[in-house]
Write a structure and sequence with these properties.
By secondary structure, the chain is mainly alpha-helical. The protein has 2 domains: 276 residues, no CATH class; 232 residues, no CATH class. It is 75% helix and 0% strand. The longest helix is centred in the N-terminal third of the chain and has 34 residues.
């Protein structure tokens, strides 16, 4: 007989990947969407493999192969930590099937282990994706032995446990603290953002002391030694100290077991407090305010976004990066350092590339701010309310599209203004760098709402599944990276004429917004729904 936590994990994994629905359904559209998602996922996997191989070749060319496995392990663990922090406590406490699962003959410890195991297998797949291609280069280059193979294999299998346990512990503490507030979800969102920003700032501060032109070995030493010290144990194990790999496995397993042991006694209490409605609030008479349909829907979308920690943090992570980068630019002024390096090297003609390249990086972060890509799916079982509103679909989709620019545009303009001031940019550069993030933010937000309208997912049991396992987010993230990469390369290559690329980009973004606006006018929120023309009042007849 299988262990109960394995059975629960199996069921949750099938639900997470949509395998049960795909096996049982006869709807061709569901199967076509699954095929499309698989194709997109294949492109994403190919891109990650390509970056891994390129990074591995940098180590090989500098004869620093021995520093490659610790470096890639630290990279994979750090990414797992960041994404686990973004999900926060939703791994354990924000599942809609909680009451059903707890009614089964299972213990709280079994439920916690099954939910964490589900996240572990997903993170293990990503860790393998990062480690396998680079380590293949490591062994092909003749730097590894049979002993090294077992060290790397053991490290890869245990690596996701420690960052997953650390991030979940932080999320659990945040959830426990937020459960005492009146506005629990908003407090939890703010605390998660604070922890996320603190970890990012700490990691940047630890790596700031690196040399200006470090080799890959020193980069690996900083990353594995300062930012993620457990990876240093793998470096010691590869150096011949076999005890280090056992120490690494023990630390990771102990962190996971300690989390389960501590969280189990308080699990039900935290879930109950987070699910409870705030009470004891005195009634206050207020005057009813009149608002337009669009304004009301927009406020509803903002409340829904701020009420979900996983939804909010996943959606505004690009904002956090932009704000942290802008503050770092104000404090350390790296633009002046780069400009001086170009002048001393006789490359003054590339000074405009600093402006256009920095503006391109802003657009990459703007492309990460995609609350609209999951806004339709987040309706969940309440989607019937959205579909039954006596409003055109365009109004609903535009309200969902408006949430992204509210966050992305101020952060992007703040970063670009800092960049433009520090580079003493020309008036034309000011114009294109202030207009481009506004136009692009509108485009990606409208595209996110439109794609989520085409590829909704209402049958989620966890908010993270609706946000992270989103076909629209996958399309826009990797498709946007490809477009933005070409755009940045073209702007940097043209140097002083880079504004031409920006003008073309702005015009394309505006054209895309116009086309999406027209497409929204033809949209139907559910099959068989009436055309938006039905909602218009008929003209009065002149016949009596």
């Amino acid at each position: 007989m299988k262990a109960k936590w394995l059975l629960l994990t199996k069921v949750q994994m099938k639900g997470l990947l949509g395998l049960n629905k795909l096996r049982k359904t006869d709807d061709r559209r569901v199967k076509n969407r699954a095929v499309g998602a698989a194709v997109l996922l294949s492109f994403a996997v190919a891109a990650i493999i390509l970056y891994d191989i390129l990074a591995a070749f940098l180590f090989v060319m500098q004869d620093a192969e021995e520093a490659l496995p610790p470096f890639m392990l630290a990279i994979a663990s750090f990414i797992v930590l960041i994404f686990s922090l973004i999900r926060g406590s939703s791994i354990l406490f924000s599942a809609k099937d909680h009451d059903f699962v707890m009614s089964l003959p299972v213990t709280k410890r079994t439920v916690i282990v099954s939910r964490l195991a589900c996240s572990y297998f997903v993170n293990l797949a990503f860790t393998l994706l990062v480690m396998l291609p680079s380590c293949a280069v490591f062994f092909i280059a003749g730097a590894g032995s049979f002993y090294d193979f077992f060290v790397i294999l053991a490290a890869t299998l245990f690596a996701p446990l420690l960052p997953l346990a650390a991030a979940t512990a932080v999320g659990t503490l945040v959830a426990a603290a937020a459960s005492r507030f009146r506005h629990k979800n908003f407090a939890q969102s703010l605390l998660n953002i604070v922890f996320f920003v603190v970890i990012l700032i700490a990691s940047f501060a630890l790596s700031y002391g690196m040399q200006s032109e470090p080799d890959m070995a020193s980069v690996s030493q900083v990353l594995a030694g300062k930012i993620y010290p457990p990876a240093q144990l793998i470096a010691l194990a590869l150096g011949g100290q076999a005890w280090a790999v056992f120490a690494f496995a023990a630390v990771c397993a102990a962190a996971f077991a300690l989390l389960v042991a501590i969280a189990a006694p308080f699990y039900e209490k935290i879930v109950s407090r987070l699910a409870a409605k705030s009470g004891g609030v005195a009634f206050k008479e207020k005057q009813i305010r009149k608002s337009s349909a669009f304004g009301t829907l927009f406020k509803k979308e903002l409340k829904r976004l701020t009420a979900s920690p996983a939804y909010l943090l996943n959606s505004i992570v690009g904002v956090l990066f932009l704000l942290i980068a802008a503050v770092a630019f104000l404090i350390f002024d790296p633009v002046s350092t780069l400009a001086e390096a170009l002048r001393s090297s006789g490359l003054e003609r590339f000074l405009p590339s600093l402006v256009y390249g920095g503006g391109g990086l802003t657009l990459m972060f703007v492309g990460m701010i995609l609350p609209s890509a999951a806004s339709v799916s987040m309706e969940g079982k309440s989607c019937w309310i959205m579909c039954s509103l006596p409003l055109p679909a365009r109004t609903v989709l535009l309200a969902k599209s408006a949430t992204g620019p509210v966050f992305s545009v101020p952060a992007a303009l703040f970063f670009n203004v800092v960049l433009l001031v520090q580079t003493a940019a020309s008036p034309l550069q000011w114009i294109v760098l202030l207009l481009s993030p506004v136009a692009y933010a509108a485009l990606v937000s409208m595209a996110g709402a439109g794609l989520n309208y085409k590829f909704p997912r209402y049958d989620w049991t966890n908010e993270t599944a609706a946000v992270k396992n989103s076909v629209p987010a996958l399309i826009l993230s990797f498709g946007g990276l490809a477009v933005e990469g070409v755009f940045i390369a073209a702007a940097i290559f043209l140097t002083r004429l880079g504004f031409i690329v920006y003008i073309f980009f702005i015009l394309i973004s505006i054209l895309g917004c116009v086309l999406l606006w027209r497409a929204f006018g033809k949209a139907r929120l559910f099959d068989g729904s009436p055309s938006p023309a039905v909602y218009r009042m008929p003209a009065p007849s002149r016949r009596f």
